[in-house]
């Protein structure tokens, strides 16, 4: 069921719903990234890591650093909410957290791409084929992450897993109404 099927049932989300959504998105993404980070750290201590060339080991370090940047970008909004907003629900927090989540996806994508290259190169023993596989997988993932057009009265700026661009400042995310809410309105 596409997003266009919900146009008639959509309503703007409240600020509280937007805040809850952006926090839940960060909580959903962070454990996976941290697990990936752990696997990247373990790889360095594996005896087969020495089979990589020095340049490939440096590439692995770069991928690890990009992943650390991604983790930091995802964790910044929680610290901001705790320190600066002190529990207040602010529009600025939702916009800031959305932007940090969106920005975190780019170094994550690059880190995964570099590791796919290293893995493919190591298994296939062919750098050109490894690079091709990494680029194809990245292009496939980015092509399938494009969202469908939204109704003109809303955006999904706080949904970084769906929308990788920025939305207008005066737009609000759409939340499908449940059957009970439709009967009341």
Walk me through this protein's architecture.
The structure is a single chain. The protein has 185 residues and is mainly alpha-helical. It has one domain. It has 5 helices and 2 strands. It starts with 9 loop residues before the first strand and ends with a helix.
User: What number of domains?
Assistant: 1
Radius of gyration: 20 Å
Separation of the first and last Cα atoms: 23 Å
The low-confidence parts are 148-185
In terms of DSSP E residues, the strand content is under 5%
Morphology = elongated
Gist?
This protein has about 180 residues and is mainly alpha-helical.
Give the SSE layout:
Blueprint: E1 10-12, H1 15-44, H2 54-85, H3 91-124, H4 127-143, E2 174-176, H5 179-184
Antiparallel strand pairs: 1-2
Helix pairs in contact: 1-2, 1-3, 2-3, 3-4
Main features:
elongated, mainly alpha, 5 helices, 2 strands, 185 residues, two-stranded antiparallel sheet
